[in-house]
Recover the amino acids of this structure.
């Protein structure tokens, strides 16, 4: 089985792009040297002195899909134990692309704004009686890149299809969360006000 030459992949990428794909040089170094002799090797031989087997060391970096696979599966199983045994909605909130130049110089600030605006939008709307009148369980994850490896900051929100009502009793929401036009309008207003306040 042939192995992809990581060094060629990343050196070729850096020749054609001026900005780094990753946040630090250590990530770039780890990925370009993964499963090469630069990270060392272990040698194995059976007690009958058959041919020696060389096992190249991996970087074990979370950004490299081959090395992070087991850690990713372990993380998923751990997260499943934290989830309620109810259906969920998947909601995505995106930072408007007009703010990308500001994002590049204020990532921590804008990440906080994205989390806060996403959370407050969902909690505010679902607390209203005509949208359920509940406090739902929410899990939010930040993604900063799109599929084309271009900056595309957005949050993925896993929202329980129900929540606690005013007397702390569970109330299911049914098949629909909130109309998307309403959610967009509230989210847009929150993002604008948080940016102005920053």
């Amino acid at each position: 089985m042939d192995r992809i030459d990581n060094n060629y992949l990343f050196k070729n990428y850096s020749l054609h792009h001026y900005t780094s794909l990753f946040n630090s040089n250590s990530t770039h170094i780890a990925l370009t040297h993964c499963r090469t002799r630069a990270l060392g090797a272990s040698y194995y031989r059976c007690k009958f002195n058959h041919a020696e087997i060389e096992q190249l060391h991996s970087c074990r970096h979370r950004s490299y899909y081959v090395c992070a696979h087991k850690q990713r599966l372990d993380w998923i199983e751990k997260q499943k134990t934290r989830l309620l045994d109810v259906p969920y909605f998947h909601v995505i909130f995106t930072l408007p692309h007009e703010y990308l130049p500001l994002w590049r110089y204020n990532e921590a600030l804008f990440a906080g704004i994205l989390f806060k605006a996403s959370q407050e939008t969902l909690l505010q709307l679902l607390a209203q009686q005509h949208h359920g009148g509940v406090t739902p369980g929410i899990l939010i994850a930040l993604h900063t890149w799109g599929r084309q490896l271009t900056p595309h900051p957005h949050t993925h929100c896993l929202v329980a299809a129900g929540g606690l009502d005013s007397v702390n009793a569970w109330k299911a929401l049914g098949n629909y969360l909130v109309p998307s036009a309403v959610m967009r309008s509230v989210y847009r207003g929150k993002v604008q006000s948080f940016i102005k306040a920053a």
About this structure: Confidence is low (pLDDT under 50) at residues 1-23. The longest strand covers residues 151-164. Residues 107-127 form the longest helix (21 residues). Residues 27 and 85 are 37 Å apart (CA to CA).
